[in-house]
Amino acid sequence: MFKKLKSLAIICIVGTFVLFCNNNIANAITPISDPRYQGIDVSDWQGYINYAQVRDSGVEIAYIKASQGINIKDPYFEINYENAKANGLKIGFYHFLTATNTEEANQQARFFASVIAGKQADCKLAMDYEVFGGVTVEESNNIAQVFLETVQNLTNKEVIVYSDLSNASNRFNRNIAENYELWLAYYGDYNDIKDVETSWERWIGLQYTDRGTVAGIRDNTDRDLFTQSIFLSDTSEIPQSSENNDFNTQTIIYTVQRGNTLSEIASRYGTTVQEIVAINGIENPNLIFPRSRTKNTYKFHNFSVQKQDKQEV
Predict the structure, then answer these.
(1) pTM value?
(2) Is 275 considered catalytic here?
């Protein structure tokens, strides 16, 4: 009888040990389905991109940086959008979030929505929130929640979170993960992401390197794999909401005068040299022509921060 009880006790101990171990094995994070689409994500860092060559290299999706903070529109946003779309790539937009409180998160969401208003996206809108500036975990989740909800309400489009594995594990909470899908940045073997605890169990997109080479892009660029779930259910034009119309753009045609420089023109009209160069395909920013020459007019976009702050030109 004692021997039987002893054996039973050993079995119970072993069983308890196995159960204890199973409860402490960290989760793996895997794609929601087989990745099928090659992608890139781009900003002004890449400069001018030849999207015909990008398309011919097998890239199908381009995530384009639209904006950052409260008033920075990526200077290559317009030309990236126009050229990627003209060459048949599927398009997504992202915003680099820098808010330190929920009020700023709301403002940045409205700004992002205003930049992409009137455009057509194929892929879910993305929040790139990776620099927290001393904001606590709880505060950063509140900021993310406000930004994501506001963008979704203003655009009527699904919104996702871009995050590296560390922040997916240590920063974003379960509530964010349950309501917004993940575009993961991870530069290892994506088939073998084990021994991690994250709020997400699946990803729909994966940025697998920041040193990719693609025909048509001069320097290294981010490369991505995407699943079918990356696509929007509604690809209609992003609306211009009455709630975000404090932000506006205007297209300006400027005739160059003798002695003008691009930096002077950019400063005068609240744009950037990079945007003027990108939109007009200027090869040498230091060589522009006065109106007596053939190439004498330049098109660019003037972006005011908010109407109440706008200075008339």
Answers:
(1) 0.74
(2) no
